[in-house]
Amino acid sequence: MIPSTVPFDKTLEVRDHCLCLHTQRAARVLARRFDEALRPHGLTNEQFSLLMALNRPNPASISQIAALLGADRTTLTAALKPLVRDGLAQLHADAADRRARRAVLTAAGHARLAGALPVWQAMHTALEAELDTPDPAQTRRGLTILARWPGMAAMPDSTVSNNQERTP
Hints:
Helix content is 58%, strand content 7%. The protein is mainly alpha-helical and 168 residues long. The chain has one domain: Winged helix-like DNA-binding domain superfamily/Winged helix DNA-binding domain (Arc Repressor Mutant, subunit A, Orthogonal Bundle). Strands 1-3-2 form a 3-stranded antiparallel sheet. Helix 2 packs across helix 6. The longest helix has 24 residues, at 107-130.
């Protein structure tokens, strides 16, 4: 066995305090729960969220949808492909900028979303009932703050002195 240079108490500290670990673990469990609930409607949690992001009065650009979902454009484009293939969404060139694309729900996409929405609502109500402290609104506020955090730009870098600003 190779001796560790990191003390085991640091492993326990990360296990017990790491927001990233706790958030990832909770996200995986939540995704599985919603995936199971949405499966009878032929959707995953990710697809439901994507269809919901497309449910708007005017077609959204790929950049707008990516920003809403916290995804990069490449990942979003890949996630849209099965929805387009299944006839739930369509991609169109932007009228003002032919290089940009806009995504819209089809009639079948609206119908699938409408069928799955009551399942999502029931799951969400049950989930919120399980949360006692903090309350669901406080949890959402905290997650929203974390999603907007500038991240590594604010972190010290071992190659930069503490008096220097780190550039992304």
